[in-house]
């Protein structure tokens, strides 16, 4: 019996030793992979914090740069036209930016237009026009039944160094007319190409 118990004991000890060895091996492998995963995640997150990955995210998150169709300057202001699109309903929507480089607050009083009907539009781009040189016709900003322009109002003015966006809607020139001049206030005319809307 002592030999039998000894053999059984050795078998049990061998089985325990093998099992323990396997458990430690698996645990060791698992721990090593975990460390590698941590290292991999650390190294993969490191470039995202200060490497190329962040630059890619910033570029994709940033608004795309606007294409400037025309730019004119006058009185310390820079007027840029970034879009001039024919809409389906027979209108043209012109959009852009104005930058105040005059050194003082600007309220767009002379951009409102001289017509009595436009007096209620305050500081706005209501006095703008599209000039079709080929057809010899000027298109004024559209208005609602109460004389309010379908355009931007510069509420509170534009402070020195600031840039603000604007828009104005006009009746569309005939289909064959693809180039017009945009003009407002004392600013020089800006020649722009009309594009077709979606």
From TrEMBL:
Top-rank taxon:
Bacteria
Q: Where is the region Disordered? A: 30-63
* Official protein name in the record: Lipoprotein
Species the sequence originates in? Streptomyces fructofermentans
């Amino acid at each position: 019996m002592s030999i039998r118990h000894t053999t059984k004991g050795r078998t049990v000890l061998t089985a325990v030793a093998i099992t323990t060895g396997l458990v430690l091996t698996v645990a060791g492998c698992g721990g090593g992979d975990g460390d590698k995963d941590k290292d991999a995640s650390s190294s993969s997150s490191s470039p995202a914090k200060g490497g190329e990955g962040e630059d890619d995210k910033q570029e994709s998150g940033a608004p795309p740069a606007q294409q400037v169709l025309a730019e004119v300057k006058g009185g310390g202001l820079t007027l840029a036209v970034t879009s001039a699109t024919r809409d389906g309903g027979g209108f043209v929507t012109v959009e852009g930016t104005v930058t105040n480089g005059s050194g003082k607050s600007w309220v767009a009083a002379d951009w409102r237009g001289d017509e009595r009907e436009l007096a209620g539009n305050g500081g706005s781009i209501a006095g703008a026009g599209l000039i079709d040189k080929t057809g010899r016709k000027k298109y004024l900003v559209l208005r609602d039944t109460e004389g309010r322009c379908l355009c931007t109002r510069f509420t509170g003015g534009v402070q020195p160094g600031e840039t603000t966006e604007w828009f104005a809607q006009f009746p569309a020139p005939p289909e064959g007319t693809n180039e017009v001049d945009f003009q407002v206030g004392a600013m020089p005319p800006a020649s722009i190409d009309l594009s077709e809307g979606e």
